[in-house]
Design a protein that fits this description.
Strand content of chain A: 15-25%
Mean pLDDT of chain B: 96
Strand content of chain B: 25-35%
Shape of chain A: globular
Oligomer: heterodimer
Helix content of chain A: 25-40%
Radius of gyration of chain A: 16 Å
CATH superfamily of chain A: NAD(P)-binding Rossmann-like Domain
CATH class of chain B: Alpha Beta
Radius of gyration of chain B: 12 Å
Mean pLDDT of chain A: 96
Shape of chain B: globular
CATH superfamily of chain B: Beta-grasp domain
Low-confidence stretches of chain B: none
Number of helices of chain A: 7
Largest sheet of chain A: 8 strands, mixed
Number of strands of chain A: 8
Distance between the termini of chain B: 47 Å
CATH class of chain A: Alpha Beta
Number of strands of chain B: 5
Number of domains of chain A: 1
Structural class of chain A: alpha/beta
Structural class of chain B: mainly beta
Chain lengths: ~220, ~80
């Protein structure tokens, strides 16, 4: 059996082929990014470009799936690339050790079919939104805080992050546990696959706001 | 000026502003000239400017607007962590 046989009931052979020819840029290899990389690697997206400037540290171990006690102090993108390649040698993984900015973002995302926002800074998220618009690339936004997971798809021509983040930086008063990043990442990956395969309905022009502490799932037309 | 009844639903850490058994939901009687801004003051929301305020499912950006009988107000703090 081939490695994608368990995908087949939802992803046809020709769709699997389409995924193998797709490129996804993942911005941020932290809580969200690690899970997004894991899932896109396993499902068989052909090219992943991983972007982060940071190194793993002890405080990442509670949630960041690529971090282990053995790779503390090492570059997140390099460690994520190693893991992805160990899982799936059929895909191409590129590690970009850079902090994104106005100056480099266009070049970083240029080849993407979809960009995944797994960043932890509203300021950087907004830079990505502008660039995705200019380059006409769909962006799948994700963020977490405490029990809350927040996901949205931003299609070219739409601007929603200014309506979510009215101040550039948010104090993180809710914390970062293990389960909300995995949840937000799963929903982000579902949206990526739908965008790549042009299937189903994407969360465009609305924000899915999940409050796990009270099990509320709300779609906000912001 | 008349009194009107509205429903206010708070999310995430804002729920703690209401009694714990309320699960963040409170029916409130307010004056009909009370603005969204003043409502948030009454509820005890400090960082009003960062909140996502929805009334009957529609986003409100102008906090000088007032409410009407039966309005359902929902207030969400956005998250930005990765």
């Amino acid at each position: 059996m081939d490695r994608y046989s368990r995908n087949k009931n939802l992803i046809s052979t020709s769709e699997q082929e389409k995924l193998s020819k797709s490129t996804v840029v993942i911005l941020g290899v932290g809580g969200l990014g690690g899970y997004v990389i894991e899932m896109l690697t396993r499902i068989g997206v052909g090219k992943l470009i991983l972007v982060d400037f940071d190194k793993f540290e002890t405080t990442n171990l509670n949630r960041q799936i690529i971090s282990t006690e053995d790779n503390l102090g090492l570059l997140k993108v390099e460690e994520a690339k190693k893991r992805a390649e160990a899982i799936n040698s059929k895909i191409e993984v590129m590690a970009v050790d850079k902090k994104i900015s106005h100056n480099n973002i266009d070049k970083i995302i240029r080849k993407a079919d979809v960009v995944v926002d797994a960043l932890d800074s509203p300021t950087l998220k907004k830079i990505v939104e502008v660039s995705c618009n200019e380059n006409k690339i769909p962006m799948v936004h994700g963020a977490i805080g405490g029990w809350i997971a927040q996901v949205a798809v931003i299609l070219p021509g739409d601007f929603i992050l200014d309506k979510i983040y009215k101040k550039d930086d948010l104090e993180n008063k809710m914390g970062n546990p293990s389960f909300t990043p995995a949840l937000a990442a799963s929903i982000q990956v579902g949206e990526v696959i739908k965008l790549l395969l042009n299937k189903g309905e994407v969360l465009s022009n609305e924000v899915l706001y999940i409050d796990l502490e009270y099990n509320s799932f709300t779609r906000l037309k912001v | 000026m008349v009194n009107i009844n509205i429903e206010v639903r708070l999310f995430a850490y804002l729920r703690e502003l209401f009694p714990s058994d309320s699960r963040g939901l409170k029916k409130m009687e307010i004056k009909n000239d009370l603005t969204i801004d003043r409502l948030m003051d009454e509820v005890g929301i400090v960082e009003k400017e960062i909140m996502i305020v929805m009334i009957n499912g529609l986003r409100k950006l102008d906090y000088n607007e007032t409410m009407k009988e039966g309005d359902r107000v929902a207030i969400f703090p956005p998250v930005g962590g990765g």
